[in-house]
Design goal:
There is one protein chain. By secondary structure, the chain is mainly alpha-helical. Among the domains are: 68 residues, Tetratricopeptide repeat domain (Serine Threonine Protein Phosphatase 5, Tetratricopeptide repeat), CATH 1.25.40; 64 residues, no CATH class. It is 77% helix and 0% strand. It has 16 helices and no strands. Helix 4 packs antiparallel against helix 5.
Length: 274
C-alpha cells in the first residue's frame, strides 16, 4: 500500500512544476518548500526550486538550491549547468565555467553547457576558447542558431571578418528571421568593403524590424560610400528620427558622409533638434 506522504510529495512536486510552467514562480517555490519539508533529500525538488528562484532573479538563492540538489545527486548535469547560468548572471565567470565543466564531466555531449561555457569565456574576453566551446555546442546541435551567432561575435573580436560572415550565414540558415544576425552580418560586410552585399543584408534586417536605427544608419554609410547620396540621406534621416542621441553626433565626424557635407539638407539634419 502506498505511503500517503509519498503520494502527497509527488502531488506537491507536480503542482510546483505546473506553477513553474505558468510562471507563478513564488507559488512554485512554496510548493517545493512543502515537498522538501517532507522529503529533504529530493534533488529534483531542489533543482526546480532553484529554477524558479533563477527566474525571479534571486541568483544567490538559486545557487544555494542547486547546491542542495548536487549534494544529493552529484552527477546532476542540469543542476551544474543552471548553477553556472546563475553564476554567470552574477558576473562570476570563472566559477560559472567551473560549474559548466562539471556538467560536461557527467554529460560530455551537453550542448547547452558547451554554449553557456562559451558565453562565460567570451565575457572574460577569451575568444579562442569561447569559439572552441561554441564549436562543441554546434557539434552536438548543428542547427543551434544562437551558437552560430555568438561564435560570429567572438570571431569579430579576433578580426576574422570573413569567418564572421560565414557564421552569421549559418545562423540565418537555421533562423531566417534572425534580425540581429542580418544587421551584424551587414556590419561585417561593411568592414570588408562589400557595400552592396551589406546593404542587402541591412534590407533583410529592416524587413523584419523597420525601426532598426543601427541598420538604417549603417545602410546610410554604405549608400554614401557608393555615391548614392539621396538614399544615404533618406536612411540617415530615418535613423536620426529613431535615435538622435546615438547617431547625430557620430554622423558629424563620420568620414563616410564626406560626400554629403556640401548638401545643406545634411548640415540642417545634423544640427536639428530631433
Amino acid at each position: 500500500m502506498a505511503d500517503f506522504r509519498d503520494i502527497e510529495t509527488v502531488l506537491l512536486f507536480q503542482k510546483g512544476l505546473y506553477l513553474n510552467k505558468q510562471q507563478d514562480f513564488t507559488s512554485a517555490i512554496a510548493s517545493y518548500d512543502v515537498v522538501l519539508s517532507i522529503q529533504p533529500d529530493y534533488p529534483d525538488a531542489w533543482y526546480n526550486r532553484g529554477n524558479a528562484l533563477y527566474r525571479l532573479g534571486c541568483y544567490e538563492e538559486a545557487i544555494a538550491s542547486y547546491d542542495q540538489a548536487l549534494e544529493y545527486e552529484p552527477g546532476f548535469s542540469e543542476a551544474w549547468n543552471n548553477r553556472g547560468s546563475a553564476l554567470d548572471d552574477l558576473h562570476r565567470y570563472e566559477e560559472a565555467i567551473a560549474s559548466y565543466d562539471q556538467a560536461l564531466k557527467y554529460k560530455p555531449d551537453y550542448c547547452w553547457a558547451w554554449y553557456n561555457r562559451g558565453i562565460a569565456l567570451r565575457n572574460l574576453e577569451r575568444y579562442e576558447d569561447a569559439i572552441y566551446s561554441y564549436d562543441r555546442a554546434i557539434e552536438f546541435k548543428p542547427d543551434y542558431c544562437w551558437a552560430w551567432y555568438n561564435r560570429a561575435l567572438a570571431l569579430k573580436q579576433l578580426g576574422k571578418l570573413t569567418n564572421v560572415v560565414a557564421s552569421y550565414d549559418k545562423a540565418l540558415e537555421f533562423k531566417p528571421d534572425f534580425e540581429e544576425a542580418w544587421t551584424n552580418r551587414g556590419n561585417a560586410l561593411y568592414h570588408l568593403g562589400q557595400l552592396e552585399t551589406a546593404i542587402a543584408s541591412y534590407d533583410k534586417a529592416l524587413e523584419l524590424r523597420p525601426d532598426n536605427p543601427n541598420a538604417l544608419y549603417n545602410k546610410a554609410c554604405c549608400y554614401a560610400l557608393t555615391g548614392n547620396y539621396e538614399l544615404a540621406f533618406e536612411s540617415l534621416q530615418r535613423a536620426l528620427e529613431l535615435n538622435p542621441q546615438e547617431y547625430q553626433e557620430i554622423a558629424k565626424t563620420n568620414s563616410d558622409f564626406d560626400g554629403l557635407r556640401s548638401d545643406k539638407r545634411f548640415t540642417s539634419l545634423l544640427n536639428r533638434q530631433l
